[in-house]
């Protein structure tokens, strides 16, 4: 699970993050971290929709190479 400190760093920087949900790259969510609680994270996508995601997914900067969740 991603820590509050990491989420806050993503929020403050305003950089796009990638949320890896499974091994299929087209299912990744990209956007900006808006808010979070103990179980979920709100991500604002480029089309301005907000998505609520589980904190157990892999969160990384969008500019970094994609991490495979199965490794």
The whole-number mean of residue pLDDT values reads: 94
Percent of residues in beta strands: 35-45%
The geometry reads as globular
User: Which CATH C-level class is it?
Assistant: Mainly Beta
CATH structural architecture: Roll
Radius of gyration from the alpha-carbon trace, in angstroms = 11 Å
What order do the SSEs take from the amino end to the carboxyl end, as H and E? HEEEEE
Number of DSSP helices?
A: 1
For the largest beta-sheet, the strand count, sense and barrel status come to: 5 strands, antiparallel
Which stretches are poorly predicted, pLDDT < 50 over at least 5 residues?
none
| Fraction of helical residues | 10-25%
* Ends apart, CA distance between termini: 16 Å
Number of domains: 1
Q: How many runs of DSSP E, i.e. beta strands?
A: 5
- What do we call the CATH topology? SH3 type barrels
- Main sheet: which strands, in order across? 4-3-2-1-5
Query: Structural class per helix/strand content?
Result: mainly beta
């Amino acid at each position: 699970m991603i820590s509050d400190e990491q989420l806050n760093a993503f929020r403050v920087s305003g950089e796009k993050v990638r949320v890896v949900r499974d091994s299929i790259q087209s299912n990744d969510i990209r956007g900006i971290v808006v808010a979070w609680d103990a179980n979920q994270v709100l991500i604002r996508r480029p089309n301005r929709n907000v998505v609520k995601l589980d904190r157990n997914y892999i969160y990384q900067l969008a500019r970094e190479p994609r991490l495979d969740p199965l490794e």
